[in-house]
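Table 4 source record.
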Amino acid sequence: MASFSVSDSPWSGRDWTLIQNGFVHLYWKPEILDETLAWLVGEGYEVITLDASSWRSVSDLHRDVASAFEFPSYYGRNLDALNDCLSDVARFEYGAHESATGTVLVARGFESFVALDRRSAEALTDIFADQARVGALIGHRMLFLIQTNDPDLQLPKVGACQVSWNPAEWLDSKRHPTN
């Protein structure tokens, strides 16, 4: 997929709105995430969804990511190996298809994994952001959309970019409605 074109008015699409501010975004309301995913699928994005709330160990993360992206059997199941394999995904060696508009990784219930192993959760977001930047250089649009049931979840900067709330829930008032 080519980079965005000014003549196509890219700033009106949800993908442009997300990617212009980084490759990793938080979602609190599942329905807003679902709307975004429906739009992305309609635009030809490939979506891979993982249930982070079911991860009871870092091994579960590695198992699910390896399976979802079809990592080779020699995958080392550690953060360095994850970085290496996601760099291959970014370059379309496996786990992503050049015919798709882009690749979207979704992790639902991510706050559970953050509580279990914050260091690994933060490393995953940072690794993905770094490799998405590599992908962007060759026209591979990659997004990591994180659904959390914690409206106050904060993650550190990843890939030198702050992890931000999606545009529909960016304001605190959208995540803390008054009754």
